[in-house]
Specification:
Radius of gyration: 26 Å
Helix content: 55-70%
CATH superfamily of the largest domain: Ribonuclease H-like superfamily/Ribonuclease H
CATH architecture of the largest domain: 2-Layer Sandwich
Number of domains: 2
Distance between the termini: 39 Å
Shape: globular
Strand content: 5-15%
Oligomer: single chain
CATH topology of the largest domain: Nucleotidyltransferase, domain 5
Largest sheet: 5 strands, mixed
Number of strands: 5
Length: about 300
């Protein structure tokens, strides 16, 4: 495997049928430092994997993983001086799921309040409140993304204000989401973000609305504090997406060649990709030299 240069790693597992491919990727150089193909990912396997990265890399300044419980204890033992960054994307995804779950509960309550329509012509004004609740329930489903989007257009702001009018739970829910996104502002340091987080955990909205208990549980998670290390280190990756980007070529190859699904074939394909990346610089130098020697040939190829 290639040696890591930047001192930072992104570690994550990618599931491929019955196998799990555990990658350690240098997110800055986009090179695979080490990988293993496992049938089951356990703490013992993760421990052996990280011990191997210590031999290959040496001193590691920071490691980015997802929110899996497999990594924190093992990283603390194998790389005690490294900052353990939890993937910001996974934290926000869990929080957004909790917010959408609150909206689902509100729609369910509205459905219970709506009476079934009777046969025959309704009397004037009869069921007007039910119609309002039915319309609101439909709009809350169609516009549910307005409560989890980071940036809203002026039109979306107007729609959101209309839906939240005289509904404090919906208004507080959107305010809560804005405060969560504000935690990950790169203009702040981690110490400032932690103070914001403490204020967020003590908001009165959690006491006023019992429906927000699920969101509060996610906000009190230690993973959210671990997801703020990137604010103090510009070189530390805030997400573990480097592993997915590095595995993209392998996924694309699988779409055309079905046999790349056995353990031996997966191992051979990853080694081939690593060798290709290792020779990329020399290959580009040879291509540039050929362009200087035979410019007419390359012009014809472009045309």
């Amino acid at each position: 495997m290639q040696k890591q240069a930047s001192g930072y790693l992104a570690v994550d597992e990618i599931y491929d049928g019955p196998f799990a491919i555990v990658y350690a990727v240098d997110p800055k150089a986009q090179i695979v430092v080490w990988y293993r193909i496992l049938e089951e990912v356990t703490k013992e396997e993760v421990r052996n994997f990280l011990i191997q990265t210590r031999f290959l890399v040496g001193s590691v300044k920071g490691i980015t993983t997802d929110g899996s419980p497999l990594y924190p204890d093992v990283i603390q033992k194998i790389h005690p001086k490294a900052r353990h960054q939890i993937c910001r994307f996974h934290c926000l995804m869990d929080l957004n799921k909790a917010v959408l779950k609150v909206l689902t509960g509100i729609r369910r309550d509205l459905a219970q309040k709506v009476k079934k329509l009777r046969r025959g012509r309704p009397k004037p004004g009869h069921g007007a409140k039910d119609d309002v609740n039915r319309t609101l329930r439909t709009e809350l489903f169609d516009r549910r993304t307005l409560w989890v989007k980071k940036h809203l257009t002026p039109r979306e702001h107007r729609i959101l204000r209309r839906l939240c009018r005289k509904r404090p739970l919906l208004r507080d829910l959107r305010t809560l989401v804005d405060l969560i996104y504000d935690l990950f502002d790169r203009r702040c340091r981690r110490e400032t973000a932690l103070r914001k987080l403490n204020r967020l955990r003590s908001l009165r909205a959690f006491e006023q609305h019992e429906a927000l208990s699920g969101v509060l549980k996610k906000i009190r998670s230690k993973n959210l504090e671990q997801a703020l290390w990137f604010l103090d280190d510009k070189l530390l990756e805030s997400t573990s997406n480097a592993v997915e980007r590095r595995n993209r070529r392998h996924r694309k190859f699988q779409k055309t060649v079905y046999r790349v699904r056995t353990k031996r074939a997966i191992d051979g394909r990853i080694k081939h990709d690593c060798l290709r990346d290792k020779k990329a610089k020399s290959r580009q130098m040879a291509l540039d030299h050929a362009k200087r020697l035979f410019p007419a040939t390359f012009r014809r190829a472009i045309c």
